[in-house]
Write a structure and sequence with these properties.
238 residues, Carbamate kinase, two-stranded antiparallel sheet, 11 strands, globular
Length: 238
Amino acid sequence: MNSLTYKRILIKLSGEVFSGKNPYGIDYSVVSVLAKQIKEISDKNIQIGIVIGGGNIHRGVSSESQGMDRVSGDYIGMMATIMNSVALQSELEKFQCDTRVMSALSIRQLAEPYIRRKAARHLEKNRIVIFAGGTGNPYFTTDTAAALRAIEINADIVIKGTKVNGVYDSDPFKNSNAIKYDNLSYKKVIDKELKVMDLTAITLCKENKLPIAVLNINKKNNLKNFLFSSKIIGTKIN
């Protein structure tokens, strides 16, 4: 691939990536490495939007299983995404990246309110935009938020950065014989219930013909190689 293939991308990072080898929290050495990767892409004049999960700090579904009201748990999870977003912004700014955090939840001391047209203007000025606070509504995952924001900003692709090398037919951590897919259709992901993104997110991408890539964000140069080399990196869904 070359720099003309994707001019505007949406990177979806799982919160678990931020915790590194720790069971929870933010490992700033990991965040710094992620920021450096993103900086290298930004320097190639690719416009970048980012959505980060909050699973390294709090999960709404888990809190519900322990007796907390689901809506309250989901809002706590949204606040966790803001914490991760501000952490990434801080690291990106160390690399002289002009970065904005825009939140679906009102928290003006840390982030701008999310306004679609303003986000587009930031991107046009080559500012990295981190979309925090999920969709601002309970019962919607950050995968869905990523798909929604990507569609709203007219991104060319959603790149989901995880701890695995792509999409497999079974859990590669539990099954050493798991088979990795290089390419998939939206229909196959839905029919086989493959753990790529939640059904709402996949459906949004399918209906809007928005491609998805899943790759190991922790592997050195993976993001850059996906965008600029001819190698097969991760799994592409379209």
